[in-house]
Amino acid sequence: MDIADEPPLLQCLRIQGRVMHALLLREIITRFGRENLGVIWLVGEPMLFTSGIVTLWSMVTLHHGSAIPIVAFAVTGYSSVLLWRNCATHAAGAIAQNKSLLFHRNVRIVDVLLTRIVVEIGGATGSFIVLSLLFIYIGWMPMPDNLLKVLFGWTMLAWFGTSLALLIGAATAFSELVPRLWNPVSYLMFPISGAAFMVDWLPERLQNIVLLLPMVHGVEILREGYFHNAVAAHYNLGYMASCCLILSLSGLYVVHQASRHVDF
Amino acid sequence: MLSVEQVSKMYATRHGLRQVLKDITFRLERGENLGILGRNGAGKSTLIRLISGAEPPTSGRIRRGMSVSWPLAFSGAFQPHLTGLDNLKFVCRVYGVDYKPLVPFVEDFTELGIYFREPVMHYSHGMATRLAFALSMAIEFDCFLIDEAMVVGDVRFHERCHFELFHKRRDRAFILVTHDANVIKLYCKNACVLHDGHLLPFSSVDAAYDYYGRLMAERPEAVEQ
Hints:
The complex is a heterodimer. Chain A has helices at residues 9-32, 41-60, 70-92, 94-98, 109-137, 147-171, 177-189, 204-210, 214-227, 237-259. Chain A is an all-alpha fold. Chain A has one domain. In chain A, helix 3 (70-92) packs parallel to helix 6 (147-171). Chain B is an alpha/beta fold. In chain B, 43% of the residues are buried.
């Protein structure tokens, strides 16, 4: 229990860990319940989504006869979308759905948002790993060429998702329009997010436009790691990192403002 | 020691900024208690939320030299999809307490029976209130913040709350806010009246009681609800 008025950093971190642990367990029970598969749905739900997309894209051979195997193309692409989109979408409901918990002094908006982000990153990552292993095992997908680069691309996308989720989640404290607008925006962003194409396949004018979107760079890095020479990847790591940094700082600023603004 | 220093709170409304609390200052030591009387909408719950730290004041400072509970209201701070037991576990994790030794107390106090392991959304109002009270008693605070919780529930529940809070924990501090002057007279040694955003101190509970009574008589329409 915090006796001091402003506890030192170490104590703050301990409280933070305690609160996030409590929120994490609570989140998993409320989201997935105890009946049937329970927590397995955390990974199962994104797996179902991705499997559906894999099937669809395989049927229409979306990738224009490129050298890349379609299953691997769909798994890397759609998992990337789920990673950042689920973070932001679930963060958009976090404050409204957890308001009653903010009665506890140590439960802050940032805890509620970070908890959801951790759950979503965990689910998307688990789904990506399990599906990849499964498809590699049955021979539908090759092994990744450079695992470290795949991991790096994935981490960059997770950073993008986290910063976006902080910004959107905290902004919902100020206006109900935010979650309402986020849904259509996220849908419209899916086809241009780099999941369903390689930048190289586009005419140059379009390339410059889609490369304005930070997540496109992340998917390109990831696919370069996975397919190596089979694709010509276009990305600018400095640009993506700068975007994520700006998003993170604005996100944290809005989180700070939101914590003085919540209406009970 | 709990110290509230020149605390003000403003809210943005459609008609501009509205000041709910104006320059509120008081201190409370362990073992002391304070009753705050105010009509509906006087800002009692806001004041309790600020003291608990759930919300920051617009200006001024609140120093907590002892552990302060969350606002013990009817059913706030609950997660409706979780069971009573899950809520106990959640609260214990947040405050860094082992929940296992507390299960018998909470089960016994709430008298929920099998409902202790059912989602809170299936509880009656009275059951939720009993759980809310038991959870805040399960965590040992130095100072309890009570938001009219004692006014609901049946006689038996009142007696048990009374015993837990005012006998077993009489060495602690508590702040009780209510619109019911009789509750304050029954439980509190000191009383204030919250009126027009100001916290008016009184030398005795009786003096506060009389003042509040006159205030009600002047504008009786505001007491109803």
